[in-house]
Amino acid sequence: MRANTVDRWLRDQINRYGPVSKLSLFCTPTVLLAGPAANKFVLFSSALHLRHPPSSQRIIGEKSLLDLHGDDHRRIRGAILEFLKPDMLKLYIGRIDAEVRHHLQENWYGRTTVTVMPLMKRLTFDVISALLVGLERGDARDALGDDLVRMLEGMVAIPVNLPFTAFSRSLKASRRARRLLERITLDKKDKLEQDNASANKDLISRLLSLLNDHGEQLLTNEEIIDNGIHALIAGHDTTSILMTFMVRHLANDPATLAAMVHEHEEIAKKKADREALDWEDLSKMKFTWRVAQETLRIVPPVFGILRRALEDIEFEGYCIPKGWQVFLSTNVTHMDPSIFDEPAKFDPSRFESLSSTTPPCSYVAFGGGHRICPGMEFAKMETLVMMHYLVRQFRWKLCNKENTFVRDPMPSPLHGLPIKLEHYTSL
After folding, report:
1. Residues marked as binding?
2. pTM of the model
3. Which of this chain's residues are annotated to bind heme (predicted)?
4. Known binding residues for heme
5. Selecting from 1.10.630.10, 1.10.3720.10, 1.10.155.10, 1.10.8.60, what CATH number does the domain 6-423 have?
């Protein structure tokens, strides 16, 4: 992982043993699968339960979507999707627009060099803490941001709670974050009882306002807090990594950058001075989203998916015993030359007609099936708004000649991707 040779190791394993093979992972017997048929099998099978390192469960909580299946998973996922459905997403664009403008003004303007990855992580945290938790700028938000970083450090650590270990620091940070979300949840519950008009302003308020058939709160406070923690973690790293690697690629691809700039300038021509973007504007950013999709194909934030068999299950003549793990290598599919012509070449145009030219479940950057990423459209909004202002306001060059990255466990460019900035226009 740290040497970023995991993709090569997986390809060697598949070349040697085929697309179905056995190995041991996290001291558990595991089946390694690869290919579009395997993607479909894993992502759509109800007999396979999501599995992740035990450290993650203890940090996030037992009631998050990561650990639930069956009726509980459907109930909580349905509740979260109430916050993320299209007519609700349209209400959030103005807030995301304001957060992006503030972020650029505070952290990019007036500087000749910046380090992209930590800034992108700060932006995504500010957006999700405002819209998912309803936390305004200030000391509480800053403290939560610090705790979130510490929590992420222990997500795949050995789950031994000893002093001075990454896992111990993560658990302490998780407890602090949980206490903050508990206070926020109770405060919002009191306000909702007095005035239900604020029910749609953030995820926690929305979840508190949902009732079951008996008029009772649909989700318990524990479920709301655990899934609030999950939303903060899920929304923090993945989108920031996508935007960081888009910046990384655009530094050395003037043709793609020029096409993006043209798309966004055409949109800006029809906007009044300092007028926020809206849903119609985002729908016109088709080329920019193809660039994002191609970035996710080549450098997916999550390179594989882990499941556990709830029962004996068969795949292509092989029996996977109950209790065994199934590891799906999505990145191997993304870089398969029989599916994507010249897979190492950055080519956003391949997404103009992807569905008609490739086998189903070949591109699974956001997962699939009943566990497809519920925040996919939210992440898309964040990315498009940030890129709209970034490519119109700045030009940049990479500071490091060596353009490499490692995984720990998500991809991270060398030194966080420092760049030299040139201010192109003003906000």
Report:
1. 373
2. 0.91
3. 373
4. 373
5. 1.10.630.10
